[in-house]
Design goal:
Layout (H helix, E strand, L loop, with lengths): L21 H13 L2 H21 L21 H32 L1 H5 L7 H30 L7 H25 L3 H19 L10 H7 L3 H14 L5 H21 L4
């Protein structure tokens, strides 16, 4: 009698096909994302709507500040201009913290990530696609806000453009690292909404959304500089209106990125 062994077939991902079709995946996910009117509004339009609403809705926001010391950072600057760095930091955080975790929690809840792992396309491709969508949307929203602010309010040009750009890039890295960490561990869209809101709104407060620039209390400024959104807003403040280099804020954003991004990759669950 001869014993016959039956081998269980093992699925092997075809060599070289892991990222083939990524362009089509990106186009498809972008089209789906654009159907969500709330994501489009908060990602693209909300920073501009907020700036215009504050600029025209609050008296004195377009009048230069003259009651500050003449050697102050804020003397001669309009209050709406001091609001701009906070709005830019908020624009990053809105997509990174509110949008991204809900997207991946929805995918996880519906089994999209699990099904992606059974196709020739690498499952990591859907993460890269949505990061690209959200990063591109952030740039579009920020460009629109800056253009409208310049046209309506004549915003002063940054005194240190390089510092502003560096702070913006580090703000994106640190806030999207935080968003990816939330995306890595939250399973349900409702839970993602709740957790993201608990993180997002305190960060907004510490970044100065309600007390921007010259009216920010010292205690809020001191605490805020150790948060990714607050550090981004303060570093852009310095680059826009001041002198010197915001070393502490840069280090804070780099530290958040260096810690949170590897942690998000390690903890990310597909199911």
């Amino acid at each position: 009698m001869t014993a016959t062994a039956t081998a269980t077939p093992t699925r092997v991902r075809p060599s070289g096909t892991g990222w083939r079709g990524f362009g089509r995946l990106l186009r498809t996910e972008t089209a789906v994302w654009l159907r969500d009117s709330s994501s489009v509004f908060f990602g693209v339009l909300f920073p501009t709507v907020l700036l215009v609403g504050v600029g025209f809705g609050i008296p004195g926001m377009r009048e230069p500040i003259t009651d500050a010391p003449q050697d102050s950072l804020w003397y001669g600057v309009t209050p709406i201009a001091t609001y701009l760095p906070t709005v830019l930091a908020m624009a990053i955080g809105t997509l990174a913290i509110l949008s991204l975790p809900v997207t991946f929690a929805t995918f996880r809840d519906k089994g999209v990530l699990r099904r992606m792992s059974t196709t020739p396309m690498r499952p990591q491709a859907i993460i890269v696609a949505h990061l690209a969508i959200n990063v591109a949307t952030t740039f579009i929203g920020v460009a629109l806000a800056l253009g409208v602010a310049q046209a309506l309010f004549g915003i002063v040009q940054p005194t240190q453009l390089g510092v502003v750009l560096g702070a913006f890039v580090l703000g994106m890295l640190s806030l999207f690292s935080l968003g990816m960490l939330l995306s890595a561990v939250v399973n349900k869209p409702s839970t993602a909404n709740a957790v993201a809101s608990l993180v997002y709104f305190p960060l907004l407060f510490l970044a100065g959304l309600w007390t921007p620039g010259p009216i920010m209390p010292d205690i809020v400024r001191q605490i805020g500089q150790f948060t990714p959104m607050g550090a981004a807003a303060q570093a852009m403040d310095t680059g826009w209106f001041g002198e010197g280099f915001p070393l502490l804020q840069y280090v804070v954003m780099l530290a958040y990125t260096a810690v949170l991004l590897p942690l998000a990759i390690r903890l990310f669950r597909w199911t």
